[in-house]
Design goal:
The chain is built from no helices and 32 strands. It is mainly beta. The strands form seven sheets. Strands 1, 2, 3, 4, 5, 6, 7, 8, 9 and 10 form a ten-stranded antiparallel beta sheet that branches.
């Protein structure tokens, strides 16, 4: 991950042109595009193609500016390969995505990026956040379709949402990134906030690593923390309600700590509970359906307790189950797709059971898998981005397997990683 605040690479041509790193592979065709911000959101167009202020030269004449506040997610407007990520003269932090045929989409004045040159990206994949770097009078996103080799403005973006019409003052609603998410957003392990869960893990050295979901594959990891090896429990869910998963953990003292997601970094922790050291399982998910993660835990006596999120901390627990002490794994995520987290567990026999959220508690379990007893890690999250949680697990060989939700149960697994056997936590 790169977060540039000073010129790292001086490019030679006008904003945001320049000479870029070569070697990008061709990817999916670039048109039609989708708007470069997440589905369901809308931002005002502040400069249209050909406007007299700064969109009237050879490098910018087809560009569109959107009034994105600093820190707003910026997503790929089509699938492709990152041709360049870095600092450009005038454009500040800039990303360029190659869509084949010498057609690149350009994203300038960013506040941060989470991609590197050579990475492949899917349509709607988060690539960074908006900002006001370079020659900018305020936070916004400069979006342009250019010739990859010369950076000359190539064409007005032909988008699914607006065609080639971008009148100043209009705020088009994006359809980029799939469905408009439910209020809860299924934000378990969705660290990027793009609607599809990522994978995070604490490795054998205690580093907390973030692996972005890159269209059913995982991009190379970014270290977002260290010293996590002594934690008893670690989980990822959207505690703040801002659309991107935060990190919660129970430390060696039994304190429950909340680390806010601050643009792919973690802010200093806040203690939101204590006495959690004796809990066998702790998980975070939106059980109430209010858009903010609650906390659930199996205590030393085997009771399954639900701690509602009360705005800034946790309310007194409600017991929603008992007899959970013998379960090997317990997790919470919205498996049914109704906007409220269900509970899944691997029992002592290795059965994977789904306990649907019914009313204010749990319904009778449904067996959705067998043979899970040998898995050292099992987790549930919406990896596909379809609104229903899938299941991921690390098998006895250290393979990371993805079991897609197929409507009623789980489809055959797809291997999305290996070498996970030494990880202390996978979430």
């Amino acid at each position: 991950m790169r977060r540039r605040t000073a010129a790292a690479l001086a490019l030679l041509l006008a904003c945001p042109g320049g000479l870029l790193s070569a070697g990008a592979a061709s990817a999916a065709p670039g048109a039609p595009f989708r708007l470069p911000y997440p589905a369901g959101s809308a931002y005002t167009i502040t400069q249209t193609p050909g406007s007299g202020y700064s969109h009237n030269d050879a490098y910018n004449r087809h560009a569109v500016d959107f009034a994105l506040p600093s820190g707003t997610p910026v997503v790929a407007s089509a699938a492709g390969t990152v041709r360049f990520e870095g600092w450009s003269a005038g454009g500040g932090i800039t990303a360029l995505i190659d869509h084949g045929g010498n057609r690149c989409s350009q994203y300038a004045h960013l506040g941060s990026t989470i991609v590197d040159a050579g990475n492949t990206v899917a349509l709607g994949q988060r690539i960074g956040t908006s900002g006001a770097t370079g020659n900018a009078t305020g936070p916004h996103l400069h979006w342009n379709i250019v010739y990859c080799d010369s950076q000359l403005s190539r064409e007005i973006p032909d988008s699914v949402e607006t065609g080639t019409s971008y009148p100043t003052g209009y705020a088009p609603v994006s359809r980029n990134g799939g469905q408009v998410l439910r209020p809860d957003g299924e934000r378990v392990s969705d660290f990027s906030g793009d609607g599809a869960a990522d994978v995070l893990g604490v490795d054998a050295t205690g580093d907390l690593l973030y692996y972005p979901n890159n269209g059913y594959r995982l991009s190379p990891p970014t270290r977002i923390g260290h010293g996590w090896g002594s934690f008893k429990h670690v989980m990822a869910a959207d505690f703040s309600g801002d659309g991107a998963a935060d990190i919660l953990g129970v430390d060696a003292n039994g304190d429950l700590l909340y680390y806010p997601n601050n643009g792919y970094r973690l802010s200093p922790p806040t203690r939101i509970g204590h006495g959690w050291g004796s809990f066998k399982h702790v998980m975070a998910a939106d059980f109430s359906g209010d858009g903010k993660a609650d906390v659930l835990g199996v205590d030393a006596t085997g009771n399954l307790l639900y701690y509602p999120h009360n705005g800034s901390a946790l309310s007194a627990p409600v017991r929603i189950g008992h007899g959970w002490g013998s379960f090997q794994h317990v997790m919470a995520a919205d498996f049914s797709g109704d906007g409220k987290a269900d509970v899944l567990g691997v029992d002592a026999s290795g059965n994977l059971l789904h306990y649907p959220h019914v009313g204010s508690g749990l319904g009778s379990p449904v067996r959705i898998g067998t043979g899970w007893g040998a898995f050292p890690h099992v987790m549930a999250s919406d990896f596909s981005g379809d609104g229903k949680a899938d299941v991921l697990g690390v098998d006895a060989s250290g393979n990371l397997l993805y079991y897609p939700h197929n409507g009623n149960g789980l489809s055959a697994p797809v291997r999305i990683g290996h070498g996970w056997g030494t990880f202390r936590f996978v979430l």
